[in-house]
Specification:
Number of helices: 3
Shape: globular
Structural class: alpha+beta
Order of helices and strands: HHEEHEE
Largest sheet: 4 strands, mixed
Bound molecules: zinc ion
Number of strands: 4
Number of domains: 1
Length: 106
């Protein structure tokens, strides 16, 4: 896999370029209304929220599976009421250490 492939996968997973990182202050919480909104990307299956910088992404099935692998858990088939939380992402300068699967509370 080339560097370009890595960048492409990174961009697909995290939805943004590597330049101009957001300074992560941490402690962000997702907006439950925003989490409940229908996904906008036609290949999106789940949202990922970064508690480091507050960014919200949509992941495709393979991106979501990759995050599950990083977190050491299996994703359920039905992701409609779930979202992922990470503590750092490629958009910010927080160091990624964990990913967890949460249920959207309505
Ligand atoms: Zn982030």
């Amino acid at each position: 896999m080339s560097w370009d492939d890595d960048r492409m996968i990174d961009a697909k997973l995290f939805g943004c370029a590597k330049a101009a990182k957001i300074h992560a202050t941490g402690g962000y919480r997702p907006d439950p209304v925003e989490l409940s909104d229908p996904l906008e990307w036609n290949r999106g299956v789940i949202r990922e929220f970064c508690s480091g910088c507050g960014s919200l992404f949509e992941l495709c099935r393979s991106g979501a599976a990759a995050m599950g692998e990083l977190g050491g858990f299996q994703l359920p088939d039905d992701l409609s009421d779930r979202y992922l939380v990470v503590d750092g992402c490629s958009c910010c300068d927080a160091v990624f250490t964990s990913v967890s699967l949460k249920r959207i509370k309505s």
